[in-house]
């Protein structure tokens, strides 16, 4: 659940940054469900501290499918580690009020995924934008092949870590995480989006990581948290030069 609230906080921060709306308002755009149902204000006294910012005004709702039907979210993110919670009913409900429902089944391992890629595409009649924490093979549905995204640590964390190292950052700030996510999003082409992909091809991960590292390092310098001075003129080039290359001499 704490992973979910962390994701929600970064979403609210980015929405606040892009719209200028207060953080208290953008938090209200994200609703959360735990083992007892929708997190609402009437449950405030029994909630753990990290859940309280996400308790909104609403009647109690026990089942996820009913919460989805009432709230009508555009994006469904699973990070609870509980498998099979995105049922056929839940995905079909998402598809009734979203032209392209976004379904993120992020829990690992595969057995704990909230639903499979095949289920998401089939139950949404091929309209879902799907990403998962575990890898899934391409899915063919009604003659069309769908390749899902893998929303796990592989995209952000290497670039984030490299950006912190090359800048000598003394502290990690939320704005650095937002910079990393914005850098990753910038690597997604229109062609990728048209195919239903919201992550760039993993084959380009070294280039992607260099660009993420550069943005994270730039933010560290901007915030006055960098200790490696002076700032390199070209952070992307510098990040690439600091990367480990697995090249080995042949002795045969």
Task: Please provide a written account of the structure.
The chain is an alpha/beta fold and 252 residues long. It is 42% helix and 10% strand. The strands form three sheets. Strands 3-4-5-8 form a four-stranded parallel beta sheet, with helices on one face. A two-stranded antiparallel sheet has the order 1-2. It has a two-stranded antiparallel sheet with strand order 6-7. The chain has helices spanning 2-19, 23-27, 64-71, 88-97, 117-123, 153-167, 174-186, 190-194, 205-222, 235-242, and strands at residues 33-34, 37-38, 75-78, 102-105, 129-132, 139-141, 144-146, 149-150. It is globular. It contains ten helices and eight strands. The mean pLDDT is 95. The chain folds into two domains: 2-150, NAD(P)-binding Rossmann-like Domain (Rossmann fold), CATH 3.40.50.720; 153-242, Rossmann fold, CATH 3.40.50.10380.
Secondary-structure map with pairings?
Layout: H1 2-19, H2 23-27, E1 33-34, E2 37-38, H3 64-71, E3 75-78, H4 88-97, E4 102-105, H5 117-123, E5 129-132, E6 139-141, E7 144-146, E8 149-150, H6 153-167, H7 174-186, H8 190-194, H9 205-222, H10 235-242
Parallel strand pairs: 3-4, 4-5, 5-8
Antiparallel strand pairs: 1-2, 6-7
